[in-house]
Write a sequence for this structure.
């Protein structure tokens, strides 16, 4: 199998450049960032760790994962993401990316931005130290952007949720050439192929619980078309009862997930930490319960 990133044939399997530990954040454009912020906090028990009046970061899991809720341009859409890597050191990461011809751009002291094989904006990031706007002004900006005055407190920062989010169960990535895109991320970030059937696959890393990227063939891609969030102590019937009580629109997605829709109509799966895989929603062997 030829590697898109390295240009060499694999004889024994890939050896990655970095080791991914989590999907660090996704940048989510929404029509009302405060409404989206509160939706994730109230449903999934996420904490608001940043809010500057135009955008917010809601945080969950260990290492921390973030959803950056922003009112920008077209919505709803995930316009970029960041993958956290083990032992991030800014200069070393930059030098490594340059050596592989990936043309890194500064994205704050804890991340470098590259374009993947489909042109999707992807950050190679530290597990800690990222926040919205950290790259404003560029690499040599003085003073550097900070979170001072932008970290909420009290119930604006944390309040009980219906569930407790623990990980990005997966982000679904539609691409015209799923194998090429799969190999790019596998070469760059490592991980394990947890599922593959010739037209789609799951690349998992970190954990437990693991995060995963689902690469799915989509001739209209590239597009990050939905997110799935793992919750602690998932029980299919209990979660459905919660969804009904809250009056949310939903549909079944196998025995380990329900698909719900946020205030902008974007699909968000509520998942068990294990047992979810690409295509489970259509797999008759994974549909023992019905809505």
């Amino acid at each position: 199998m030829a590697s898109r990133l390295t240009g060499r044939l694999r004889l024994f399997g890939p050896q990655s450049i970095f080791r991914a530990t989590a999907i660090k954040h996704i940048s989510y454009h929404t029509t009302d960032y405060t409404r989206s912020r509160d939706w994730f906090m109230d449903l999934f028990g996420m904490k608001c760790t940043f809010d500057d009046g135009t955008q917010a970061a809601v945080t969950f899991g260990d290492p921390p994962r973030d959803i950056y809720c922003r009112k920008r341009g077209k919505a709803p859409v995930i316009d970029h993401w960041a993958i956290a890597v083990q032992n991030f050191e800014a200069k070393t990461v930059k030098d490594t990316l340059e050596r592989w011809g990936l043309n890194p751009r500064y994205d704050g002291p804890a991340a470098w931005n590259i374009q993947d094989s489909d042109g999707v904006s992807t950050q190679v990031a530290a597990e800690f130290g990222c926040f919205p706007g950290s790259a404003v002004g560029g690499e040599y900006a003085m003073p550097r952007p900070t979170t001072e005055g932008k970290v909420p407190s009290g119930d604006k920062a944390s309040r009980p949720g219906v569930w407790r989010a623990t990980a990005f169960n997966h982000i679904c990535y539609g691409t015209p050439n799923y194998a090429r895109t799969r190999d790019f991320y596998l070469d760059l970030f490592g991980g394990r192929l947890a599922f593959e059937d010739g037209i789609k696959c799951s690349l998992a890393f970190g954990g437990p619980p693991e995060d995963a990227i689902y690469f799915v063939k989509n001739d209209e891609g590239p597009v990050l078309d939905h997110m799935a969030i793992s919750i602690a102590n998932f029980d299919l019937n209990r979660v459905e009862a919660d969804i009904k009580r809250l009056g949310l629109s939903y549909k079944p997605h196998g025995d380990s997930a329900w698909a719900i829709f946020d205030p902008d109509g974007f699909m968000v799966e509520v998942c068990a930490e294990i047992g979810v895989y690409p295509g489970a929603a259509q797999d008759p062997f994974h549909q023992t319960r019905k809505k």
